Amino acid sequence: MNTLRFGLVSALALTAGQYAAHAQDADDEAPEEARTLGRVTVTAQRREEDLIDVPLSVSAFSADQLEATGAVDITSIQRSTPNATIEVARGSNSTLIAFIRGVGQQDPLWGFEPGVGLYVDDVYIARPQGAILDIFDIERIEVLRGPQGTLYGRNTIGGAIKYVTAKMDDEPDLKAKVNVGSYSQLDTIVSGSVPLSDTFKVGGAIANYQRDGYGENLFTGADHYDKDVLAYRVSAEWAPTDSLFFRFAYDKSEDNSNAKHGHRLIPSGDGTLPVTDNVYDTRAGIGDDNSVETEGYSFTGEWDVNNEITLKSVTAYREGATVTPIDFDALPGQDFDVPAYYSDDQFSQEFQMLYNGDRLSGVAGIYYLDGSADGAFDLLLSALGLTVYQAGKQDKENFSVYGDFTYDLTDQWSVSLGGRFTKDETTADVTRELWLGMGSGSFDPTNTSSIFFVTQTGYEGLNREDEEFTPRISVSYKPTDDLNIYATYAQGFKAGGFDPRARADLDTLGLSQEGFGPEKVDSYEIGIKGSFFDDRLLLNTAVFFAEYTDQQITVQSGADSDNDGVNDTFVSSVFNAGSSEYTGLELEGSWFINDEFTLMGNLGYIDAEIQEILSAGTNIADQFVTQNTPELQGQLSLNYMRDFGPEFGAISITGSASYRDAYYLFNVENPGFAPGTNVLFPNGGPALDPDSYTLLDLSFVWTSPSERLRFGIHGRNLTDEEYRVAAYNFVTPSQLGFDSAYSAFYGPPRTLTASISVDF
Predict the structure, then answer these.
(1) What is the mean pLDDT of residues 714-732?
(2) What distance in Å separates the CA atoms of residue 646 and residue 654, rounded to the nearest whole number?
(3) Whole-structure pTM over 0.85, yes or no?
């Protein structure tokens, strides 16, 4: 039981965000009173290293740790990761919006690249649709903060999130887990593997998530904020010799949860429909049917050429399809409704060479990505008798060569040098049409009631190429084995593209055909990582400064196309801001108080400011703000662990408080509008940007003496805090449609979940 107890404590101790892939077992010969948190082995730089030796800002969460704290999906790690926003996108159940240190991408429409890269194992996920991954059959989740590109397949300007699935055991294994809880929650997860020979194994996992809605669509009677997800994986591993390893994996996810339409914060324009009492309720009339499907294949091969060199190949294909109705106005009428579909596919190939010598170690690779994303939607404006049809496609071809090596100058000093050459080619089609009537014949060929009026955009084959070399350099000094002081400079790069909502008829200079340019981040970081008091205290500290150049900013608003005083369409503008500066501090720590209590915490502070946006020679930066970036956020957790011996097993109780400062959802502030400033809504409207909030969680886990049975009770958001995570605003400063859109989306309310898992 000593090993079990230490393993659970180690997993829980990393809640603060320590980058921990695997915690080593406690020294069997150590006396009871000397048991410590232990040293941690990580693979952040594609090789096994002690956590203290890694000159990167990283966090990781093991499967045991996530289970012990009742984590639901990938957004749960936001609370334990400094300076990170990882949320569900507006109007969606499974689209990911991720920002790290102020860098990310808010708009999930085709044509925009994410600023934070998501990986399933070593495969980059190019599109955010379906990327809210449920936590099952995993080994760990890793978060790397700051620009990435010299270590990973696809360059990402803000950071990377890695979802690492569990590896197969050498013996037959079968696990089952059931969760029951609030809102009729019922989750069933089964995973297992079996060796068919000494060299060949097969395995798989299946998970079904069911939950009633937190609210209701008061117009249709359907659940709102419900969950209906089926996901599964299968894999096969073959190791014909000690130096060869091959792995094939397939995964698929089907999300049939109802469409999420939002909570309208102002009454209807005619005053007959008031604001609903429950923030999870809606009156959306467009419908509730929603479908998001994603699937992928990957094949990995590894060859240990000798003790120093390993060659690796990762080949992958993924595709996804989404059919969803978006009710912007959140009211029964078709005043501002959008039926939409999206689809995407991607092929990627990566070759790596890993070297691990006495003093020199590192990785070099070649990466290729060929991806395509397209979609279409109708914007239904019944009050005006108009439909705007928007469609498009963007193809992205990326070729990169990268390398990153560390040389130990002495036992105390080491230098890391890395670089990446990236070439991106983007090709795009953009179509925009105006139709008289409800629904276009272009989106729905069976619709014969509407009349085509005019083509506003008809771009085909727009093309641009962006290429860049981005370096990384790091210097580490270890005065002792328990302390590392490092300084790192890294440059991040994200290619340009084309606005998928471009208006050719309003673009007299033809600038939209040129697209928006690439953006760059120069990131400087100084950090200290240490283990103190005989490994009873682990502490990571980092300060960073980032210069963000040519930031890609998207602004959308209603527009009056015929100068009659009524906004009958919307316009989108994507431009490159001149410069921004982000300065921040990150603290992560775990203190093993004694054999029973462990205190954990993390803190993220960032001062993010857009400094220059030039318009006609005038700096208008004061009209814009940084989005999805709270100035202050953090978490404090206390774990109590008690081992009752071989008869009764062990218990673990973890309580945590997570805080996030007020922040902005978009690059334009949304403080609300005062009474009397809008004729249709004379009482004004509340602010859309989220206020600060604190979430309290409490988990209890009992593990049997055999370690095969585990029972847990997890309470999340115990004070039932109402907190916004996304919003729509087409009322101020410019209104679109009669009722327009002024609604918000909220994080989960108070929930209680009981879980039982069995390892057969």
Answers:
(1) 95
(2) 22
(3) yes
